[in-house]
Design brief:
Order of helices and strands: HEHEHHEHEHEHEHEHEH
Number of domains: 1
Number of helices: 10
Length: 243
Amino acid sequence: MSDPRTEELAQRLATVRAELDAAVARTGRVPGDVELLVVTKFFPAADVARLIELGEREFGESREPEASRKIAELGELVDSRGAVFDMIGSVQTKKAKTVARWARSVQSVDRHKLVDQLATAAQAALHEQLRTEPLGVFCQVSLDGDPTRGGVIEAELPELAQRVVAAPSLRLAGLMVIAPTNGEVREWMARTARIRERFLREYPDATALSAGMSADMAIAVEYGSTCVRVGTAIMGSRPLLSQ
């Protein structure tokens, strides 16, 4: 018999999955075309284990060393079930070495120095057989030019992307955006779609678009998102104490 927390997560997950499936269907896209990245930052490894048992395999973390500790605590469950973790928060260059050991992708790359540090770290991780394939990189785009929210403006995107492409230990996956809190979400997502269209002309293989969270998931899917990052709607309110 499952415990109350597992039952809560199962119900919340089912609701989000249904909403995501409906959003995908409305766009005429193929079922399963949009990845659900469950954001588990601030929540314990026990919750991630519950989600893995419920069938989830893709997770998002945004703090290091919290993520490393959590993955270590999960142990063999991660490898045996094929669970993967993306780094979705800002990465300090001094922590690139550690992140490159556990992350499938880093979705928040917005600086040349960070690209260089991740490239070096990923190459070392490959050499030490701590990873088996290049580190995925999403270029984070700033839609409003606010430097406090991270991301590069569109004019700076080609140079950043080219730096990623030039690194053998990295793989340019695509773009990531966080819709600004001011203005209309639909307008921000429409702008994202236009930026992505131009980006794909230069990098046709970098098809991933990480856009949309709990509140704007359906709109993001409408404008082409291939990955939605959902935390609160599945995990509930952030705990008072974080590990």
